[in-house]
Amino acid sequence: MTDKMKRTADPAAEAMMAKAGECEVGTAYDRHESQGKRCPFGEAGTCCRICEMGPCRISKKNPRGICGANAATVASRHLIRQVAAGVAAHSDHGHDIVKTLLMTARGESQGYEIKGEQRLHEIAKEWDIETAGRTKEAIAEELALAAMNEFNQQEGEIHYPAARAPEATVKDWRRNGLIPVGIEHEIVETLHRTHEGVDAEYKNILMHGLRTSMGDGWAGAMLATDLGDILFGTPEPVRSEVNLGVLKADEVNIVVHGHEPTLSEMVVAASRDPELLELAKSHGAKGIMVGGICCTANEILMRQGAPVVGNFLHQELAIATGAVDVMLVDVQCIIPAVIEHAGRFHTKVITTSKKAHIPGAEHIQFEESKALDIAKDIVRRAVENFPNRGPVDIPPYRNDLVAGFTVANTFTHLGGRYRSSFRPLNDGIISGRLRGVAAVIGCNTVKKTQDDSHLKMVKEFLKNDVLVIMTGCAATACAKAGLLQPEAAAEYAGEGLKEICEAVGIPPVLHFGSCVDNSRILVALCEMIKEGGLGEKLSDLPIAGAAPEAMCEKAIAIGFYCVASGAFVNYAPSMRIQGSEDVTRFLTEDVEAITGGKFSFEEDPIEAAHLMMEHMDKKRAALKLRPLMYAKPFLAVTEASAGREVSEEELEAVAASQAEGHYGGGHSCGGKKV
After folding, report:
1. Distances 525 to 253, 299, 546, 562, 578 between C-alpha atoms, Å
2. What CA–CA distances, in Å, run from 589 to 170, 584, 595, 598, 600?
3. Are 253 and 323 in contact (CB under 8 A)?
């Protein structure tokens, strides 16, 4: 692999990969290479391991498994099990936030308080909970109990779709049976449906996958975001720094890694404790730095301004600097290999969840009732480990970023304090200054050059006047490259996007938080419809989403609920379904007639961006919007046309076509799209 492509687009990561190699400690890329060629049946989604008669491999020679299941049945069953796992991960996160809010309301937690009282009143109103004359604790307790019911409800519908989504979209969801009864209800049904001898009809299976995914975006993740804002405070735009260079050679460094903010918030508070700061000085450290990796990083960045050490593939590399005194992990995206690196350096790896033990790591069980005491104990251990450091090698790469955008404060940024609304955003799209909005989310994967697809795709959007919203490790990728600064608009944005960014002082790429905060994006889309002028359904909007370096089942679940909500989604590398033409066709074509959304699986990030912009242009044409004010023709490249020169006449033809109101960005030449 390394003969054909670089491992990373990040110079800090490149330096630490070299350092790991010198220390003879393998990284995820080394282990990827040692795996060799993958099983083609597994890659295509046509290997069935559901019952003990198999495993069965479906091929043209053997088109059915022992039970008679064909490629479509096998691929669809496997896929929606991945959806269910992704929904479970996000929703379990949401459940823990709800539990912590409930304990805090009852006075049973330690160190927590209800910081977002205004947000509490706003959400309580949505849930028809009386607020007048009541304490914030009483309101929070009733809300938390109502939210708990979303997980195990057995009849009716989850709350948020009807409460927040456009009426026309809700009608479509109900007609197609896509609103979940309850989060856990749909996960259980997924496992039942895909058991041996149950559901064998691929369309029926996939429709249930869409319904299950809705329990993530419109329930579990949305509750994690909303109730997190109540408990920890609603984020506001904040400047901070990102990349391995944020680690301090002369300070105690604690890296929190995972996804749940309940303990990491307490660790940040404990790191500011005067007694622990004095202890650090007594051990020769100038202070205590808490930074994050993965979505925990985004949580404490948004609310505390804590620096971001890196994204998913940085977790081993951070330890290789020799400067991490404690890596504190909770759940999700933590690779067991961090122990191998910790064993070569002085880093203590501490696990904190009963769900996520790692052989070789210390375990300190987190309990909400002792949260602050546990956090102080962990910080103390990091301080006491500081003198055990060997040589420190911190790469000199870090960048500024602005994060902390939410639906509420984006209202204010766009419309001002006295006209807080999405009107300027809608007007920007209607007038043709903006082509549309793209949500670029997701992970890193060793199957691609780290961060490269995120950067190429986002830069292509910016120069074509597409406002970009990002979450998770994707946002960190672009932050490391400087794209999450207001100054980036001058360098990368097209004229229309640049005008808007400079007028309201926002970056051309908006950091909306962690992966569960994709629910903020769903709410923003609802507000765009509510503001008017861009259709009646979510599927009418000139928007699209992408996971250009998708890695895990959570990304599949997110993709599914976005398609169920009416979005065009490019997902790469492809889901393991392409051994079935039926399943592939359903997800990339047929589902659009049901939800208004669909998938594409384009690997090339530039071509994927063009497919997404063509979708935006199609929606613009359907809404009869004005031509783009500063349109530049973009040419979709195919294998047949790659490498040949494009004439001025062809460029002029595309520009003329767009000027006349034909919004397709591609241009035909000799029957080929070029």
Report:
1. 39, 22, 16, 11, 31
2. 22, 8, 11, 6, 9
3. yes
Nearest alpha carbon to residue 190 among 180, 580, 571, 562: 180
Instruction: Name which of 211, 282, 208, 216 is nearest 252 in CA terms.
Output: 282
Give the pLDDT confidence of 310-369 residue by residue, as tens digits: 999 999 999 999 999 999 999 999 999 999 999 899 999 999 999 999 999 999 999 999
Q: Where in the chain is the domain with CATH 3.40.50.2030?
A: 244-388, 402-629
Task: Give me the pLDDT at residue 64, please.
Answer: 97
Check if the beta carbon of residue 375 is closer than 8 Å to that of residue 267: yes
Predicted structure pTM score: 0.92
Identify the three-state secondary structure at position 170.
helix
Residues 6+ apart with CB under 8 A from 13: 7, 244, 310, 313, 314, 317, 450, 451
For 196, the token pair is 């041996």
Secondary structure class of 600 (helix, strand, coil):
strand
Give the tens place of pLDDT for each residue, 121-173. 999 999 999 999 999 999 999 999 999 999 999 999 999 999 999 999 999 99
SS3 223: helix
Q: Do residues 599 and 571 lie in contact, with contact meaning Cβ atoms separated by under 8 Å?
A: yes
CA 162 to CA 525: how far, in whole Å? 14
Measured CA to CA, the distance from residue 59 to residue 556 in angstroms comes to 25
The DSSP 8-state label assigned to residue 197 in this structure reads T
Helix (H) or strand (E) holding 402: strand 399-403
The CATH code for residues 244-388 is 3.40.50.2030
Residue range(s) of every CATH 1.20.1270.30 domain in the chain: 71-232
For 653, list phi and psi in degrees, rounded to 5. -65, -40
**Whole-number Cα distances in Å, 22 to 15, 18, 344, 533:** 11, 6, 12, 59
Q: Amino acid letter at 598?
A: K
From the candidate CATH numbers 3.30.360.10, 3.40.50.2030, 1.10.10.10, 3.90.20.10, the one assigned to the domain spanning 402-629 = 3.40.50.2030
Encode 244-291 in three state secondary structure. HHHCCCCCEEEEEEECCHHHHHHHHHHHCCHHHHHHHHHCCCCCEEEE
β-strands 362-363, 288-293 pairing:
unpaired
User: For the chain, how far is it from start to end, CA to CA, in angstroms?
Assistant: 29
Strand partners, 349: 327
pLDDT in tens, 451-460: 999 999 999 9
Q: Assign domain 71-232 to a CATH class.
A: mainly alpha
Q: SS3 for 657?
A: helix
- pLDDT for the residue 504: 84
State the DSSP H helix or E strand holding residue 329, giving kind and residue range, or none if neither: strand 326-329
